[in-house]
Amino acid sequence: MMCMEEMKRYESFKQKFFHWFLAFPDDEPFLAAADELLALLKEEMGLEQAVFYLFDPERAAFYPEASAGGAMGAGAVAADGGQEIALLDGGSHEKARLFFSLPDGTPALLELTYRKERAIDRPLLQAVRADFADLFGKLAAMLQGEGEEKRYGQLHRFAAKIHSSMRIDDVLEEIIRTLQNVYPSFTYYLLLSHDNHLRDHLPIKVLALDEGEGQTAALRAFLTGQVQCDELETPRRSVLYAPIKGVQAVYGVIQIIAPYAAPFPQREVRFISLLAGTAGSALENAKLYEQSRRLVADLQLINDTMRQLNARMRLHEGIEYMVSQIRQSFGADEVGFFLFADGRRELLPGSTPFFYEERSAMYVKWVEERRRDGQDILFAGDAWASSLTPFRSIMAAPMQQNKETKGVCIALAREPYRFTFEMFKLLESLVQHSTLAFMNAILREELEKLVVTDYLTKLYTRRYLDETIQKSMETDGSGAFLLIDIDNFKQINDLYGHQIGDEVLIRVAETVRASVRENDVAARWGGEELAVYLPNVHLVDAVAAARRITEKVRQHTAPAVTVSCGVSWWGRRFGDNAKQLFKQADKALYRAKEMGKNCIFVYDGRRLYKA
């Protein structure tokens, strides 16, 4: 027979339960409702504690989920062979454990703790067990139905909203917002690959795609496209990884961390999978839209670049424009163009100054090694994971024409993962299209050089020299003219033959060219006579150049020859012209020949003298 006093207490609980139920909000989570229900039971029956447990099949034990009386610190309860009621003697207290199952089949446990003198007999415990099994079952089903309806309403609104957006940022933000609404007590992150630029205002992490320490659950979800479950050790938490999967690929993983260490129910897994799948479909659409826009922009960039390159006649102008475009379009810090010719690698003018420094060699070497290995993809998001290396991102695109590699373009960035693979493919296309313009500019400049270059000595022609002097006299303030003749050149031809004579002439020409400044013009005047024009120099500097030439010719020719030199000079205040300049230098050279050769004579406009 039931104890009448305890029966009255229990009946009082039932009566108050009716009023509690009428006032209970229908949108409260099940475990919150369980807390309130246990508090009501504890108060009405005079219990010390009332704890509700759920069974964890992975650890084969019951774990506390709701309580009244501060018993959540209690440990796990081992499964007890399927009995319905177990009584435990705790000295001054007694515990009654009532085992039952929820409608979805999950084993549950209601543990009541009371003073021993308040002993509750077994018939009443059986009644409490039966009532609470039915009560928790109906409460869970009702709240779960309400919750499911609301959650799937959230999912419907989520799908409608993200599928109406074509921006990746909007899709990612809506994923986070929906998770906040559905699981306000959970912690969550979006794990995305390096190709997605991170948004600081969203809980986004980079998905580690290497397997250096084994394949993580997040990586398994990304690679398999299947939901994965894991557990954190400190503090113990259950974690779920749901792949953000579209039709074409998996774009990332949603990481959801529960505030407890119990397995995710299958209904939660199904819902999260639906949400992640919906997000994957929308993210894929947004990516495809952005890719189509980027493709149009890329084609526009290539078209504009080709138009600008074709309008630039000089090679260095074209390289400078391309360097500017690459830095602006890809965020590169340094850009270098290299030309392969005669087994050598030549840095083209217009490249950024860094590539003229010795420290650029390691980056060029990195590209060269991969080219030799036959690698087609010369691209790395973080090639040197070291703070000692100024540039972490690198990509290189070959300059190809008629399936022959003519050179390479190298782009560097300080920030790791600054370049995406899409950027690399665009750079390849951009460089491929520009190569023809560069090769045409090189060929055009070579033809221009041939027109103004003597075929034997490779010095400028007399016509080019005349034009240069004429322009200089129009724009500069002064200039000097050196007329050089190889002494006894006829004897060289008679003794050694014309072939040796030509070689001597070539050697003298090379010596002359090496002895003057880059902006000075060395030309073949005719026969064995050479000429040099030096713009914007004083007469004393012109004489010094003449001495340098005569000494080097004497030292570096075989068979050894000497030269005679006539020097003339003009200044704007004297009103000289090119014809006078040539005539004065010719007079000076004639006097040098008369005075025994191998010497220098100067005509300064007033007098003729030996230097």
UniProtKB/TrEMBL annotation:
Residues 477-605 form the GGDEF domain. PROSITE patterns: GGDEF (PS50887). InterPro entries: Diguanylate_Cyclase (IPR050469), GAF (IPR003018), GAF-like_dom_sf (IPR029016), GGDEF_dom (IPR000160), Nucleotide_cyclase (IPR029787), Rev_trsase/Diguanyl_cyclase (IPR043128). Pfam families: GGDEF. SMART domains: GAF, GGDEF. Gene3D superfamilies: 3.30.450.40, 3.30.70.270. This is GGDEF domain-containing protein.
